[in-house]
Batch of 4 targets.
Target 1
Amino acid sequence: MTTSWWIGGVEIPTRIVLAPMAGVSVQAFRRQGRRFGAGLVCSEMVSACGLSYGNERTLGYLRIARDEHPLAVQIFGSQPELLAEAAQMVVDAGADIVDINFGCPVRKVTKTGAGASALEDHDLACRLAGAVVEAVDVPVTVKMRRGVRNGSRTALDLGPKLEAIGVAALTLHPRSAQQMYTGFADHSLTAELVSRVAVPVMASGDIVDHSVATRVLADTGAAAVMIGRGAQGRPWARWLIYLSPLMHLSLLFFGAIFIAFELYRKYAGLGNKVRFVVVVLVNLGVIAVTRAQERGYSLLSVG
């Protein structure tokens, strides 16, 4: 997880990438992501039309802090000339990488021909990506879903075409746009995409802990894992992915012991050593339940 890799000429110091998420990947969130070990952070998606029109709110997405780098700014649109113009603007603002969104399943985006709908029109997708590659001198990446419909494999055909026109890396979230965020991410498609292209591939979807991240990297051959919803409300999630389950539990165990000791030292006059033991056991119980929930178990499902 801690070995570096490259997207074009940009070195990424770890194998963990913080995903672009609309309404979530604001500057404060990205800075916390870098603080907790993300090798690359991405902005929320930025409208090419909004930038072209000089929309004040859209321009606000281009505020970049010095401690965010390396940073990818994600743009979306359905007009090659506007997307190229937007790419130049985000590079001027300080982006190290320009990412193109071919994955958003939300209707207000797809109805314009942007987002995941570009997966249905490879000619348009290639013209959009090609315009951006020609417009900027930084690496260009593309994030996409497997396709629009359930069972689609169109991303596997589009990936090599994007590589051929100069796209430096690809991210695959192997759910369909129709699925939205239901069901499971089928990373066998990620492995197949890796086998079809020479550029780095980032695996996105259902990456929630160290064991999943390690398994996905091993099974797919992907260069990195991209964490999205698994990091919401858990800024430390990127850091914990570094740790093996044993190290993770050991850290939590000694943390619980420390907290219990401090409580006992503070309130020693109120009881005896039995209270200390109870506090330790309660803390360990909380740890066990938390870990079980993170792994998808529930007390209601036991038996």
Note: Residues 245-301 form one domain.
Target 2
Amino acid sequence: MGSTVGRRAKYLLLLVGLAAAGCGTGSGNLSAGAGSGAATAIALSTAATAARQRTPTATAGGQCTTFPSDNIWNQDISKLPVDPHSSQYIASIGSQSFLHPDFGSEPAYGIPYNVVSGTPPRVHVSFQYADESDPGPYPIPARPAIEIGSDRHLLILDTQNCYLYELYAAQQSANGSWKAGSGAIWNLRSNALRPAGWTSADAAGLPIFPGLVRYDEVASGRIDHALRFTVALTRDSYIWPARHDASSSGNPDYPPMGLRLRLKASINISGFPPQDQVILTALKVYGMIVADNGSNWYISGASDNRWNDDVLNQLKAIPGSDFEVVDTSSLQINPNSGQTR
């Protein structure tokens, strides 16, 4: 783990690593690109009743849920106790800094994802960090949507077989071959975590897709999972369900990877637009997880041309002092599983 942390600190790399689940045999044709059509195709978030029936199934329509209903990503943490070190963590992240939606209507702003189903061709990917990567092969579409910028995350959702594929620093060579920093494959039917000490597309060793704010779920009026967010200064440790850290600092006031925060129940959100209220309600009920190093209070979402950026920007009125850290240890059954009590 130490050598991996050093590489990340030196090169500011956010690696994608090996998922605990195997790669499976599913494949498919590209059924949607990033954002706008993808969430409709997979129906990852619907009405509250459907949200309670999360056990993933592969249906004729190619619909999956994101991990089982008892997975840590999907748990209501609104009643959990406040972490005794909460105030110090919040101060280190920035109590007077503000929430920032790191996504919007522009393709360059947010993390896109691709949806495949059926029997698409699978390709071999060469990895810079093969020792922490799932060898694949990966069902990369012919013209995949890739995150714009240095991280170049490539997320692929196989809706027929319920697998999630994530690559970091994905690049296609002139000869058509693919290479990446590293890669992870997640079985969406499984609660298995990655090997302890292993990274992923997030520095915390967690998947990216489950923590994204997606337009269709906001339009449905409900987000039923935790969100992903970044912090500039983290500690050289991680807590469940994270599996990896990316810091050389032992400062106890810096948050460890995997730390869960929630918007305080007392915060009045009635004055925000309905779209923002959905996001803020999710932050009260499901919270957000420290998943990577980056700008403070930046929550991640999928780019989608249907977002109203003026509405999203009103989220920037929420200061860090409106959040608190929660203690999720009571939910843990097994440190190597995301399953909760």
Note: Residues 274-285 form the longest helix (12 residues).
Target 3
Amino acid sequence: MWLMKSCRIALLAGLMVTVAGTHALGAPAECPGTKKLYRGECLYPDEIKQKKAKRAKTSAKKKPQKDRPKASPSQAPVSAESLAKEAIELFEAGRYRDAADTLSKAYTIQAEPVFLLGIGSCYQHLGDGLNCVSYFRRYLTEYAAAHSGAMPDNADDVRQAIEQCRGASSKPGLDWTAHYGSRFSKSDARTYTRRRDAMVSNLEEEGTLDRDVITAMATVPMELFAPDDVLSYVYQNSPVPVGYDETISQPTLTASMLTMLGLKPGDKVLEVKTASGYQTALMAQLGATVYTVETNRGLGRKLQRLFAEISHGVIHLKVANRASPGWPEHGPYEAIIVTAALETLPSSLTDQLAVGGRLLAPIGPPEAQYLRVYNKHRSGEIRSKDLLQVRFGLMPGE
């Protein structure tokens, strides 16, 4: 496992090094001779024993929580440093979820990438692969943004941890860190992280959206798929124009559709019209292998270059005059999602749907258009259900 003793030591000491004003994980991985590392110091076993005894004695003298005076408004606010210290203690005590929550608070106060590394490590210990991958990716992205695209010294270890979090049977996923760092500054990254966090809070308040979908949307940078002149609109709950007569759908609609689609890691999904590419990346982040068809050649070439840089073989894009015929050579698909409206659903798409699969598409004219889900049963029968009224643009070429 990546987070072995030496890497764990570097992480814990690194939290304290960072809040002191540096960006390096500066603690030694090992101590010389018979000394052991304890709370960032190389000490002899007897010294460690004495320090533990002193800490226990000090802790015993503290009043119970209920007897402590309530905090007054005049007291100093909680600092990132104090939260980091608390997180280290929780981590060492095996309280990984509490440590992750505490580091999240520290990150809100002081947006240092190492806090994201710590949160990812907590989730790795908890066996939460999706959150583990999410926070390790964010760590690499924000570090690169803060260092003009350069990767941290522990980047290979973190990537190895990401692979272990996914599991041996999962797909390689996305890596946009270098591309992100070459386009956005550290200040930009923090701005978009705050906006992304606000979007996620709004999605969580909906109460009906899949947790994995929300986590993917908390991870994938929407700004990567938006031109510079519309970056101020990303993460608002409204469509973002990206040129080529396309938009990034409002986050609530994107999250709702992916929740309805019900993707699982390892699924093979067909996307009928790539459009902005943001939803494509979200599905790959959810662990699917995505085959997507785009009709606009200029947009298609642009996205092919982007996906070639950030995707490790999990996104396959082709440009065609029409998208509705799908991509039968790679079927059947566990899921199919259509991103532009069709008057009726062609049989060419249901033929590519695997038994037990789900197909989601906006169907009907603009004045009476519904998002409809289709399920293929063992007998080959296709059953459909209208989910909600929508208004999508018509599929080009139909």
Note: The longest strand covers residues 353-363.
Target 4
Amino acid sequence: MKGLVWILVNINEANIMKHIFLFISLFSSYTLFASPFAKPSEASGILNLSIARPSANIFPVTIYAIDGDQTINRNKAIWLKPGVHTISVNSVIDLSNRSKSLLRKHRIKKEDKNELKITIEEGKTYYIGYDANANDPNEWRPVVWKVK
């Protein structure tokens, strides 16, 4: 009886291991093919996030999601595969150069308008920032302020 239980337990463990291996294999191949990211050597466009224009009230952003999938916060440059992408950003708006009647600093939260749909073309660099030109913070939004 002990031998039969041992065989059943080992068979189940073997089946579980097969299923785990299959799941990991499928998941890793899916993420490799579904990823919006590209290597610098691949066909790609670049999102430049670190250059701001505070004098024009355009502030740097940090990307926290691409195409609805959360990513590690990125705040410098990102190589993306060509195509349409939706990026979600955070930013801290420093309004110290504005009228004292406005907030000095405003942190953009997930509830704010923080998504930008962008069509990436191979070989182009897109400068992304958060436009805080309007007096009403509800009108602030992420923008592509330069394409090179």
Note: Residues 1-34 form one domain.
